[in-house]
Amino acid sequence: MKVDGRPMRTIWLEPDGWAVGIIDQTRLPHRFETMRLETLDQAAHAIRAMLVRGAPLIGVAAAYGVCLALREDASDAALDAACDTLAKTRPTAINLRWALGEMTAAVRHLPREARVAAAYARAGEIAEEDVAINQAIGRHGGALIEATARRKVGERVEILTHCNAGWLAAVDWGTALAPIYTAHERGIPLHVWVDETRPRNQGASLTAWELSRHGVPCTLIADNTGGHLMQHGKVDLVIVGTDRVTAQGDVCNKIGTYLKALAAHDNGVPFYVALPSPTLDFAVVDGVAEIPIEERGAEEVTEIAGKTADGRIETVRIAPDGVTAANYGFDVTPARLVTGLITERGVVAPNRAALAAAFAERAGAGRA
Ligand code: MRU
User: Fold this and answer.
1) What is the residue with the minimal CA distance to atom 10 of ligand 1?
2) What is the residue extent of each domain of the chain?
3) What does the alpha-carbon distance between residue 281 and residue 366 come to, in Å, rounded to a whole number?
4) Which of 29, 302, 349, 361 is a Cys-bridge partner for 354, taking CB atoms 3.0 to 4.6 Å apart?
């Protein structure tokens, strides 16, 4: 997508052909800063501290982290240690583990001297595959928005989204926002309600930033507003991203997604999930019982960062001193609340049979 008219991706190889460039997303929306990663530790830190975040981007960043590790030591032991370090950075998004599996499979069978080149080649492919997958999700989801527009004859389509599943969460295009960008480019009149997405405010700082930079009409709302809007007919459909979808179609996504799904269900609003296939985890069936939910630092709840009137970025405390806070990063929306999964192969029903039929080659590797 474009930043100030300049085509931009979230991750790239630097001109030297080996170091990895990223956008430091912790600085957005007030500063646009890029950063150069040269070591495994820097890559692991970038994922852990959320300089890069979003399930697809975490996977690609981990793939490049393996490349950086192998440049220093291409032994089996170094490969295993790098995968171990990277796997521990964030527990919930399955793309991370998927990408590490892909990288291991691409290099393990090779002699040491061939591993670095093979690793960069596979990481590059994973990045390009992400772009192609998201473009396909854009086409299939865009058709849903277009169908809604036809029913509304001339009125704009109202879409609600949660967290950031835009191009900043992927290599390009994004998952949940790809249908929105696609429909917008086709001239479909639309408007996006952007949940602020406490506690880290990825909606306020990232989704509102990328949509407005791209010229897509959007309005930021406090997280608790969605139900009210749905009761008053102000949401035609919800589209969210996901960090992991189970074999039976349960959807793990940013904390608060489940509440939006309940409100959508109660108000008859279609609730769609944009699902790239690397986010499918056929090894897990019951998402509520089985998916590990990341718990992050209490300060993300008790403090908030922002820009002061004189342009400084400051963090302030919003809770009483000494109060404790719980910070669960994700929740699970049961498949029964999901209208459809927008995948690169079309819209798939959220159930075991439909997912296994659509992704037969992946389903075979799952649990019996
Ligand atoms: O904690 P984050 O920012 O890495 O969370 C991931 C997300 O942005 C969302 O959960 C998103 O909807 C899924 S990633 C496309």
Assistant:
1) 254
2) 2-129, 141-367
3) 7
4) 349
